[in-house]
Amino acid sequence: MNSGGGFGLGLGFGLTPTAVIQVTNLSSAVTSEQMRTLFSFLGEIEELRLYPPDNAPLAFSSKVCYVKFRDPSSVGVAQHLTNTVFIDRALIVVPCAEDD
């Protein structure tokens, strides 16, 4: 238990839980719409960014996605998707600091 009033992440994020996750090991075929659909079942999404973006002119072997939820408790739920195969790869979902 921490003095932040909730469950701490225990990962060095300080006293306030983060509302942002980083999703790695994404297939190069994944789109931001697919990511939004997947994670919208876990909580309301405030912001979602996929890198490289859908309209990138170059081909990449994998992508990374950042999802910011309105409610930080959605982060803990999202972490349960780690190792879930999405398209052709197992997702890796970790909490991420909210700094730009």
UniProtKB/TrEMBL annotation:
PROSITE patterns: RRM. Residues 19-98 form the RRM domain. Gene3D superfamilies: 3.30.70.330. SUPFAM superfamilies: RNA-binding domain, RBD. It holds the Pfam family RRM_1. GO terms for molecular function: RNA binding. The keyword RNA-binding applies. This is RRM domain-containing protein. It comes from Equus asinus (Donkey).
